[in-house]
Design brief:
Largest sheet: 9 strands, mixed
Oligomer: single chain
Radius of gyration: 22 Å
Shape: globular
Bound molecules: flavin-adenine dinucleotide
Distance between the termini: 39 Å
Length: 450
């Protein structure tokens, strides 16, 4: 077994019914590894078992690498648990776009605003917020959209082969997402965004009021216009999908360490990963810890302005048959998605850091707005708060650490980490292999904030 660190011995976790590892161990496929020299199969630590981490583990194992996954919470313990479940290849318009300047009074003064900023967090947030606003100009926002569109254009390809994994297809619901506007003014204000989406390859159909009602008859008749995004789909249970993916990977040799990684020690020929159970050397590390990635990146010499856009969800148990697809309400900033256990209402943006306290007002707004959109829902249950990982330019970081080429970053996927998990995993596999990535990674480089 050719390993650069070579201190794994013959780990028990690569025995058994190995689909990917066995291939590499018996037929060792050489992978050109740029400055790292030529390697074959490598021992790789993936930190974080969300959509990004588990997709990365899948792509790396597919290439024959031996992967150890670290996460204290198990699969989908972070933002990946409670999202709206939409595979949103149309989502190339970042939150930080020119409408932010127009909407600031509404954000700050209107009780129906789905956006909140906790004033006590402002001193800590200020540097991020200033950058975020600077990236909201028309020019910068369009640059972000173009870069996101590159990733989104490959999002489906990033999942296609993974979805062949037994047990995963059952979670996929091929129903297009419907985005709604309750006022002609809001729809008129969205024209520039819709035009840019179309320029960037998004296929959509605009629906009049009657067509919206015909498509989703249980909706309240308050929606002036709808936009149906072709090619989008959703998951009936995002966490169930990731649990099934991890279980399948474990059958194929994935080793799982259910522990917090406290320290990364990059060295010339290996990276040491330390957690409560001790330290372990790996040939490479993929840091996919979502909104919690910043301190570990700092240990590798990269001080990245990662913060979080907190988001919420509620569940209306047993109500899924009332809508046939994910339905979003533009002005109120949320989606209602029919899932296995009921309709999940997910959305809002709160800038308040990583503290676990929930904002009761935002949860009430979600409940009130969803009841208004879809009358007759049962009582809402299971309020949930999640931390979207967001860099101030709205783009993820996908690239090698400055201090050590053996550490690859993959975090900061803001509102679309479910959608971009697969393609991100494939790009991490490209970087580990020393291949030229399928897309230009310059806009996603960790060094862009220097
Ligand atoms: C309300 C809401 C709705 C959303 N809707 C959608 C949607 O419809 N479509 C879409 O594409 N995206 C959506 N998103 C965004 C999406 O959920 C996130 O972008 C995505 O989950 C990020 O995935 P991740 O793997 O990077 O991070 P996470 O899912 O947060 O996973 C990170 C993991 O790292 C682990 N971790 C953290 N620190 C450490 C450590 N030190 N050591 C080991 N492990 C660690 C955590 O336990 C966690 O499991 C939504 C988000 C929210 C909040």
């Amino acid at each position: 077994m050719a390993s650069e660190s070579g201190d794994f011995g013959a780990p028990a976790f690569i025995a058994g019914p190995v689909q990917y590892c066995a291939t590499s161990l018996t037929s060792i496929v050489p992978i050109a590894c740029g400055k790292l020299g030529t390697i074959t199969m490598a021992h790789i630590a993936v930190i974080g078992a969300g959509f990004v981490g588990l997709s990365t583990a899948w792509h790396l194992m597919r290439e024959g690498h031996v992967v150890t996954l670290y996460d204290p919470a198990g699969p989908a313990g972070g933002a990946s648990f409670g999202n709206a479940g939409t595979f949103a290849t149309y989502a190339c318009i970042p939150v930080n776009n020119p409408s932010v300047f127009r909407d600031i009074p509404h954000f700050l003064l209107d009780a129906r605003s789905p956006f909140r900023l906790r004033l006590g967090y402002l001193p800590q947030l200020a540097p991020w917020l200033v950058r975020f606003l600077l990236h909201s100009t028309a020019l910068r926002s369009e640059q972000t959209s173009r870069a996101l569109a590159q990733l989104l254009g490959r999002a489906q390809a990033g999942y296609d082969a993974m979805l062949q994994t037994p047990g995963l297809a059952q979670f996929v619901r091929p129903r297009e997402c419907l985005y709604l506007y309750s006022s002609a003014k809001a729809f008129a204000q969205s024209q520039a965004d819709l035009a840019l989406r179309q320029t960037l390859g998004v296929k959509l159909d605009v629906l009049e009021r009657d067509a919206v009602q015909a498509l989703e008859p249980n909706l309240s008749p308050i929606f002036e216009r709808g936009v149906l995004f072709r090619g989008s789909w959703h998951l009936s249970d995002p966490a169930g999908f990731l649990r099934a993916l991890q279980a399948s990977l474990q059958q194929q040799g994935l080793r799982v360490v259910q522990s917090v990684v406290s320290t990364l020690r990059p060295r010339a020929h290996e990276v040491e990963v330390e957690c409560a159970g001790g330290a372990q050397a790996h040939d490479h590390v993929a840091l996919c810890a979502g909104a919690h990635s910043r301190p570990l990146a700092a240990q590798c010499g990269d001080f990245l302005p990662l913060d979080t856009e907190r988001g919420y969800h509620l569940l209306y148990p047993g109500s899924s048959s009332r809508i046939s697809r994910p339905v979003g309400w533009a002005e109120r900033g949320f989606y209602m998605t029919p899932m296995a256990r009921g309709i999940r209402v997910a959305g809002s943006v709160e800038l308040a850091g990583l503290k676990p306290e929930k904002h009761a007002g935002l949860l009430q707004l979600l409940e009130h707005s969803s009841q208004r959109a879809l009358p007759g829902l049962p009582a809402a249950t299971e309020p949930w708060l999640g931390f979207r990982p967001t860099l101030p330019d709205g783009l993820p970081v996908i690239g090698r650490s400055r201090a050590c080429e053996r550490v690859v970053y993959a975090f900061g996927h803001q509102h679309i980490g479910l959608t971009l998990g697969g393609v991100t995993g494939s790009l991490v596999a490209d970087l580990v292999a020393g291949r030229t990535p399928a897309i230009n990674l310059v806009p996603f480089a960790p060094g862009r904030f220097r």
